[in-house]
Amino acid sequence: MDINSIDPAAASNLDELDKLVLNNQQKKKASVGSYLFLSFLLPPLTLYLALYLAFKKNLLSAALPVFCIAYSLGNLLVGLGQIFTIAVPRQLVGIAQFGAVAPNALVVILSNITLVLAALGTILGFYFRFKSKKVERLEKWTLWFLFILINLEIFLAIYLVTVEFSWLYNITAPSVAPPELGF
Q1: Residues 111, 116, 120, CA angle at the centre, nearest 5°?
Q2: What sign does the dihedral 85-87-92-94 (CA atoms) show?
């Protein structure tokens, strides 16, 4: 007997009704992807909107670990990009003709913290995703922890990308004033 062919009004026993409820819950959990896409449009504003909409549909326990995984993998790319961007100017510091600027120690520390948070967020995201599939809802402290972790990752990524572009400008900007015309 096919699950979709059962009419809720004509269900004759509890087993058929349990199958219907289970089928509807599986359909609900499968719709987290649209909220994830919405959260990537203009983070962090659309992230908050997507989390609010997921909360309204009772999908927050399923959506937040997926958001944590996605944002952590994105931050892993930002952290690695920042480390690779730091490595090149560090090698060029001794060459005076390029006028390279050595990276600030704070930026190196924040890049490493970003990598650690990205690894932690990915691991915890997968853990709580599997846990949310087993239990109906995650605990409140878990949801708050994942929410704070995602926000830390977003703001660190924004800061590091801003710093990276300012370094690229400082390295590539001409350090010599243009010669004056002798009129």
Answers
A1: 145
A2: positive
Residues 118/167, Cβ–Cβ less than 8 Å: no
* 165 alpha carbon, distance to own chain's centre: 20
- pLDDT tens digit sequence for 121-167: 999 999 999 999 888 789 999 999 999 999 999 999 998 888 777 76
* Radius of gyration for the alpha carbons in the chain, expressed in angstroms and rounded: 25
Which residue matches tokens 């809720």?
Answer: 8
pLDDT number for residue 70: 96
- CA distances to 15, 68, 84, 97, 111 from 146, in Å: 36, 7, 28, 47, 20
Cβ atoms of 138 and 132 within 8 Å: the answer is: yes
Amino acid at 26: Q
The structure's pTM equals 0.71
pLDDT grade for 12, boundaries at 50, 70 and 90: low
> Residue 152 burial by CB count (10 A; 0-12/13-18/19+): exposed, middle or buried?
middle
Inter-CA distances, 85 with 26, 93, 114, Å = 44, 13, 15
**Burial of 116 from C-beta contacts in 10 A (0-12 / 13-18 / 19+):** exposed
